[in-house]
Amino acid sequence: MSVEKILEINNLSKNYGSLQAVRDISFTVNKGEVYGILGPNGSGKTTTLAVILGVLNANGGDFKWFGKPLQKETRQRIGALIETPNFYPYLTLFENLQIAAKIKNASEESINNALGTANLLKRKHTNYGNLSLGMKQRMAIASVLIGDPDVLVLDEPTNGLDPEGFAEVRNIIQSQASKGKTIILASHILDEVEKVCSHVAILKSGELIANGRVGELLTSEDIVYVQSENQDELFALLQFAEMVSRVSRIEDDITVVLKKPFTPVELNKFCSEKGFVLSKIMLRKQSLEAQFLELVK
Ligand code: ATP
Questions:
Q1: Would you state the pLDDT for residue 220?
Q2: CA 22 to centroid of ligand 1, rounded, Å
């Protein structure tokens, strides 16, 4: 099955005066992916989204949506949320969305579908001003679902939400993804990207420092520290051991990352069978958070 490229970004750069907010970044988003753009505040996520949505002009590089430069027809296939939309507090959710539907030339059915997906159908006749923060966030997402776009672009969609609100937004994203929609979302929260996204591009100071499948890029690894009387020989042994994924030397320790599902107990046994008595064997669980911080340090 051939993959359909939804968005291709090639060597994109954007400056604000002398500040280079986005530097020469390239990555591709394929159909059906939930693609996270992850990075700390100020790393260039919103700028990247604003450029690919045609809100800002790039200073270098280019991008293509559905294989073409951004044009009116392609823009209609993209539902974007980069700023909180302005809704009228004294109009109901349905009335507010009627305005959005009119602009997008979408049907009344599309409004009900959007409210249903955002789990707000029961609130259809509630005034927007009476919604909780979590509901307001879902209403914002409902507004981009109007017209049933193929792609959703969301900037920090769970920002400020409590765990329940987070879970509800996550459900919306996952239900859209299961329908074959493509989702691009910017986030500074590793947990959000880990739980919601299939792919990720990690930005740091405007530069792309890594991208790929979430499971491959952000896997939690356990590191085992070992010492023996003869570190040189042990190091040589471990470099070719079947159960070892990576090995390196840091100060007095040899650090080992084991292939799954091997455990330190098996490593210890293996070393002893090869004639090495370990004077130290210590396991350190490295959290995803720690790895992410290491990447963006
Ligand atoms: P955040 O999550 O805080 O929005 P971000 O990763 O989305 O961060 P951007 O908002 O794209 O990052 O900002 C990237 C850099 O560009 C930052 O240093 C920011 O201060 C700067 N910047 C953003 N918008 C402007 C602007 N309109 N004028 C000048 N500098 C800007």
A1: 64
A2: 9
